[in-house]
Amino acid sequence: MKTNTIFKIKALAIFSFIWLFASCTNLDEVVLDEVLGENASNPAGALAAAYDRLGDGTFVDHGGVFSLQEYTTDEAILPTRGSDWGDGGKWRDMHEFTWKSDNAIVGDNWNKLTNGITRSLTAIQSIEESSIPEKKLFLAEAKGLLAYYLYTTLDLYGQAPYRDPMNPNAPLQILKADTQIDQLIKDVEALIPDLANMGEQQTHHGRFTKEAAYGFLATMYLNRAVFKDRFNAASNFNFNEAAVSGTGTDMDRVIYYTSLLINSGKYSLESDYFKNFARDNNNGKELIFAISQKIDYIRNGSNSFAYVCMERNQRTSAANRGTNAACTTPEFFATWDGNHDDPRFQQKYQYADGTWFMNDGTDVSTPATDIVPKSANLPWFHFNRGIQYGPQYGPILLASGSLEMTGNRIKVSPLYMEKSTTTRMDFTPSLTFKNPAQAVFAQNEINQGARIFKYEFDPEGGNGNSNVDIPLYRLGGIYTMRAEAYFRKGSPALAMDDLNKLRTSRKRESLYGNAPGKALTAIDQTVLYNEIGFELYWELYRRPQMIRFGKFDLAGTAKAASQPFRRVFPIPQSTIDVTKQFTQNQGYN
Question: What UniProt keywords are attached to this protein's entry (predicted)?
């Protein structure tokens, strides 16, 4: 998180601050462990700490909120691969729908999100008690972040803790999703007059601006019906209920807020879809609210979304490798049938001398002229982007510790799996588990699964660090929300117009003549559902989408049909053990 540049804080002091409630062991005490600034009464430092919780694993790591929003869906799965990724079954639990209240991922994400609530409340208290010139703006941002953490916690767990930040003796309150969603919407709408327009008052897409609020409000209205009737067995959610405020229905408000963003003139769709996820996307044309990442002495960003799919023998330089963990499922891959020429599906890389990396067995070498930033002159090899499947090719790391060369160029060779050296690196879209109910591969099967190379692998800071800003709201997603709202209001033609705007604005690489995506000629619910996936895959939106469309409970790869209670996660048992105000969510007792 670029907290030092957001608030121009030069001093970094990390210390403990006991205040609200414990997110992991004792909800009567909390250690707020990373406040930036001279002391906890520093309003800018307290607000920076609240922003910082967005990063540091929460929304930027595959084990964070991603694991709950994506590994539980058809877009992502992390199977046990031979001797790797067993970890007590915690990853498989996500996709097999066998998680319990003691699952480490469930508990860790609860801790992160409730710590975000704590930090936001601390910031509100600190700002309220200050007399700084930015008081009104900072207070609105802190309240916006509080709402965002609360909403995410309610979405995932159905409950969230809260205390009045201005009353040191305030009792702990347990907010419930079905009753709190309306208040959250009202709270965020009330903040808009005090928030800055993006670009004003030194704001940018890493700050909670008016535009971030519009995207957030559209999201809350889109999912309000689910929050109010989460366990409806038939998934017959009332998406056209009268709105909390303003005129019309929930879908009317989605259209209103998304239109404010689309018509603002501040954002435009990238013709190169993958620029949204590139290491230089800090000036991205679509980014409305994002987690600003930078390889520096504070946070160093997270490379997790790129690193997690790449195989160990896929090397962007002699100092980098992947980890061979996650892939997508056959179900999601199949939604792209007939759309492999969509610019969002896959993109080949072209070097400055005109060399294309085809990754099809025809490559002999690539230039060694691209150098990893801030490295000892290490040549930088670029893998292709998007959904990668089939046999893989690339550079080989020699025993000397350097990439194999041919003359002054990087040699390209067929690749084999690092931990199964006779197994060809063939990313098969199919997943052939011996036990169909368990996502477990034998050692010679660890190549399986089409991989998602959507986010650019940043080699600058080793395997784990990145300069890629992680979008939370971007213009492409705003179009999908408006399209869904139009469709649910009975205006399929308007929905198709928005989806076609996305399709035809994206263009393929020059290898394919910069051809734009092909327009749809008809639309139904299945087409709409698939198109949202094409635009937003791996962006932490799939679980809510599957619930809205009635697909989350269905059987799939390594997943039996599930009951509606699985639409939320259990409250961690460690929290219930020490805080009697919480009651366990239905189905988990």
Answer: Cell outer membrane, Membrane, Signal
Residue 229 lies in a domain: yes
Residues 6 or more apart whose Cβ sits within 8 Å of residue 187: 143, 147
Q: Sort strands 173-176 and 287-291 into parallel, antiparallel or unpaired.
A: unpaired
* Token couple for 82: 């031979």
- What is the CATH classification number for the domain harbouring 226? 1.25.40.390
Positive/negative CA dihedral, 518, 326, 152, 225: positive
Q: How confident is the model at residue 23 (pLDDT cuts 50, 70, 90)?
A: very low
The token pair at 440 is: 């477990």
Region of poorest pLDDT, from 23-27, 423-427, 581-585: 23-27
Per-residue pLDDT at 298 = 76
Q: Are 189 and 157 in contact, with CB atoms under 8 Å apart?
A: no
Question: What pLDDT shows up at residue 7?
Answer: 47
Domain for residue 226, yes or no? yes
How far apart (Å, rounded) are the C-alpha atoms in residues 351 and 525? Answer: 40
Which burial class, exposed, middle or buried, applies to 534 when counting CB atoms under 10 A from its CB (0-12, 13-18, 19+)?
buried
Per-residue CA distances from 448 to 325, 361, 423, 454, 563 (Å): 10, 19, 10, 18, 29
**Is-contact 21 30, C-beta < 8 A?**
yes
Find the domain containing 234 and state its range. Answer: 43-292+471-578
Is 0.70 surpassed by the pTM of this model?
Answer: yes
Q: What is the mean pLDDT of residues 338-365?
A: 98
> Among 102, 471, 450, which residue's Cα sits nearest to residue 284?
471
Helix (H) or strand (E) holding 178: helix 177-191
State yes or no: pLDDT of 38 exceeds 90. no
pLDDT in tens, 363-377: 999 999 999 999 999
Alpha carbons 281 and 300: distance in angstroms, whole number: 16
Q: What is the separation of C-alpha 136 from the centre of its chain, rounded to a whole number of angstroms?
A: 30
Report the number of distinct structural domains present in the chain: 1
Tokens of 535: 């635009």
Under 8 Å between Cβ of 3 and 51: yes
Residue 98: inside a domain = yes
